[in-house]
Amino acid sequence: MIRGFIAGVMISNAFEWVAHKYILHGVHRKGKARFSPSPASMNSHWAHHRFVRKQQFGDDGYVEGLKNDRTRLELLSLVIVASTTSAMAYPFSKGMALSFWYCAGKYFYVHRRAHLEPDWAKKRIPWHYDHHMNSNQDANWCVTRPWFDYVMGTRVASTHELMESNLLGMNLPAFIEQPLNAWARRNLPKVFARLEQNLTLEQKAQQQLQPEMVSDETASQAA
């Protein structure tokens, strides 16, 4: 049962990446609007992005609770996904079936708390803070843990200071974290090279955007 639960958590993290990228953000199409198999979910999610950018990572939709359309749609989607996947997994692994419900609940808790407490988000899930606040919002697809972003090379940090201290994105005691990081750097050099490359590109992009942001602020003050 434990193995099934752990496998389910890993599968759920991969699903976060896939669903966020292809369903919630949609696929770019030249000369056309983005495509998503669920346009309602995609439109709702981009509305969430717009609110978050305006409110410095906060989203009042979570304060409103079930009165808010976006919050209701997110909860409904999580229930549908958890119900479907757990029903499929139950005959083979009760642990995996349980993990899908656990991961759905954790996703909602983490995502909601992050946008109600931005300082908590910057400290505990900086990959999601970067997802919303970076120059390019089409990256950093994982929400609860950054695992699959590392696998797919889509973890784009804005600064070294903001970035999580280990690949697991977990608060670990030093006697575990230090050897884990040493092992990771020794055995996964391409992952860290890609992280540095992504970080450098993001910082350059932010420097290019900064003059535009300053000019926009000056124009708005003059108006």
Describe the model:
The protein has 223 residues and is mainly alpha-helical. The protein has one domain. Helices cover 70% and strands 3% of the residues. It contains ten helices and two strands; from the N terminus they run αββααααααααα. It has a two-stranded antiparallel ribbon. A hairpin with a 2-residue loop joins strand 1 (27-29) and strand 2 (32-35). Helix 2 (39-54) packs across helix 4 (69-89), helix 4 packs antiparallel against helix 5 and helix 6 (118-124) crosses helix 7. The longest helix has 34 residues, at 189-222. The radius of gyration is 19 Å and the shape is globular. The protein starts with a helix and ends with a helix. Residues 213-223 have low confidence and may be disordered.
State the low-pLDDT regions, or none: 213-223
Strand fraction: under 5%
Count of alpha/pi helices: 10
From N to C, what is the helix and strand string?
Answer: HEEHHHHHHHHH
- Please state the structural category: mainly alpha
Give the termini distance in whole angstroms: 63 Å
Q: What is the number of independent domains?
A: 1
Gyration radius, to the nearest Å? Answer: 19 Å
Brief characterization of the structure:
By secondary structure, the protein is mainly α. 70% of the residues lie in helices and 3% in strands.
Which helices and strands appear, and what pairs or packs with what?
Blueprint (H helix, E strand, L loop, with lengths): L1 H23 L2 E3 L2 E4 L3 H16 L6 H4 L4 H21 L4 H23 L1 H7 L1 H8 L13 H6 L21 H14 L1 H34 L1
Antiparallel strand pairs: 1-2
Helix pairs in contact: 1-5, 2-4, 4-5, 5-6, 6-7
